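Issue: ligand-bound run for MTE - logging full I/O for the record.

Environment: standard queue, default settings, no custom constraints.

Inputs:
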Amino acid sequence: MKKIKFSEITPEKIYLKRRDFIKKLGLSTSSLMVGQNFLNGAKASTQNLELTEYRYISTYNNYYEFGTRKSDPVEKSQNFKTSPWSLTIDGEVKKKITLTVDEIKNSFPIEERIYRLRCVEGWSMIIPWMGFSLSKLLEKASPNSKAKFVEFTSVYDPEQMPGQRYPILQWPYKEGLRIDEAMHPLTTMVTGLYGKELPNQNGAPLRLIVPWKYGFKSAKAIVNIKFVERMPTSSWMRASPREYGFYSNVNPRVDHPRWSQASERVIGSGILSERIPTAIFNGYGEEVANLYSGMDLKKNF
Ligand code: MTE
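Outputs:
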């Protein structure tokens, strides 16, 4: 009889079995909208959609507040305090609001969304996020007619975040979106992954996912969302404006000044680390290309 090694029974294998089971029963659960969202993901990307294992998603991270090595976030964020936590939405709004994470989690149905995360460095993972469309949350604050962009600010806490004691980037981490990008249904407020709470290293308790943009647009540990009139300057734009633009849509035809963006390494695909061609808008062109019609994507990188 073949013995199963303990290491083969990964949480995600159990998780996938459970998903299969739910699918076979034809159940549509409101908390885990597995079937529907899996199909959305499949439609959105024609490429291989095999989920990246949890152990890679939670140990190979970019989170410069905890250091610049891939292993720093998992090693240094475990005692980071994510509760109490609140998020303020202000700026050009009719009604400034502050909500706790629990209020947010209880206000919107949390669903599973499988999206490819494509890092600007040239690697990608397929991640089963848990979250809801950011638009739902933004609508609560009713932006006024001056609001044209949205600025996201991550937490500033150098006592807990050793990376913030060094000027690696301008702290706190800032990102931005045009208002129509922020309101797009694919733009997701993330509260978990693999059906679990979001690990600290992945941006707990609240992080953004903008599936058609390079990963750095997806700010972690967000404390403020501000509606603004002018295009915000993100931390990466400030650090290197020639290399990191405001839009940062995934585009295999627009290279980074120091490397090609034509292909990507799929994390966890074995020692050979398979490379696949990168898809325009990370495979979500059908949903989002219309946001950029008539725009020169080389100029607006
Ligand atoms: N958010 C903050 N606050 N700080 C960061 O350093 N890194 C970004 C993004 N969000 C980053 C951040 C980058 S470069 C990427 S690729 C993704 O987070 C990585 O997300 P992951 O570690 O969950 O895969």
